[in-house]
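Cross-posting from the modeling subforum.

Setting up a comparison between two proteins and wanted a second pair of eyes on the formatting. Protein 1 (sequence, then C-alpha cells):
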Amino acid sequence: MASTHKRSALAKGGARRPPVRRKNLNIDQEKLDRVVKILGSKSETEAIDKALDIVLYRDELVEGIERIIGTGGVENYFDDHPDW
C-alpha cells in the first residue's frame, strides 16, 4: 500500500502533481487585489498561481521567438518599402 505522502502527491489518474509549499510573503496588497480581479481568481493563492503560470508562459514564448529569429524564410517587408 502506498504511503500517505506518496498518495498525496498523486492527482486523479495517477499523474504526479508538482510540489506545493506554504510561503509567508510580503506582497503589495493593492497589486494583489488588482491581480485577483484581473484574473478572476477565487482566492489570492489562485491569483498568484495563475500569475506565475503567465510569467512562465511568457518566458517560453520569448525562448521560442529567440530560437526562430534569423532562421530565414520571412522577408522583412517594411524595410524594403521605405514609403511605409
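Protein 2 (same layout):
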Amino acid sequence: MCPTFRPEPIRTARLDLLPLRVEHAARMAVVLADSALHTFIGGAPSTPEELRARYERLVAGSPDPSVSWCNWVLRTRDDGHSGGDGSLAGTVQATVTGQGAVTGWTEAEIAWVVGVPWQGRGLASEAARGLVGWLREKDVRTVVAHVHPDHRASAAVAAAAGLSPTREEQDGEIRWRSESPGQA
C-alpha cells in the first residue's frame, strides 16, 4: 500500500488552485452550467445536487490505495468582477497512480475545464502548467491527458503544459504525454 497523494494549494500568476471541497458544488454548478462545455465530452451540465454528490465521492478519495484522486477549483485572484477576492472559474484534476515515495509516482492523468465566461484568457493553460509543475515537484514521472482530436483549444492547453500528442487513442481521444527527464 502506498501513501495517499493529496492535493495542496497551488499558486500561479493569476490563479489559486484550491483543493476541492464539497462546499464548492453550488458555485461550481454555475461556473459549469453552459452546455457548450460538453461539446466534446458529451453529457449535460450537472445540477448543484448532482455536483455535490460527485464532489462528496471525489473528496472521499479512491477506494484503491494505489490511486489518488486530486481535484482543485480554480480561483482567480482578481478578475474585476468580484471586488478583488476572485471568483471560481473552473477545475483541474489529476488521477495519480504509483508506488509512493520510495519508487516514485508512476503516472498522473490530468484534465481541466474552464467556465465559458473565463475562456480565451489563457487560464486553462496557466492552471495546467501549474498542475504539471506541482506533479513534477512530487516526482510524478509521466503526465497524460486525453484530448478530443477536434478540440483545438484543449490541444493548445496540453501543449502549453508540456505534453505532446502520441499515436495512441482511447475512447476516440488522442493521448497526450510528458515524461519527466530521464524517463523513457
